[in-house]
Write a structure and sequence with these properties.
The chain contains two helices and no strands. By secondary structure, it is mainly α.
């Protein structure tokens, strides 16, 4: 779900989510971002040995 504030920002940028082509572009971008984040997480886990992992205080 896109918040009204974000929806307005997308419209100002020329991205109308009611347009099927624009909506597909938006979804592709979200999927690409999710894939990149997942790859970064996998890389980070592989780069740190289990004995050196420390829980984040946040």
């Amino acid at each position: 779900m896109v918040s009204p504030r974000d929806w307005e920002a997308l419209l100002r940028l020329g991205l109308d989510l009611y347009d099927p082509a624009d909506a597909a572009l938006f979804v592709d971008g979200v999927r690409a971002a999710d894939d990149a984040i997942a790859a970064q997480e996998r890389w980070g886990r592989a780069a740190v040995s289990p004995s050196k992992r420390v829980r984040s205080p946040l």
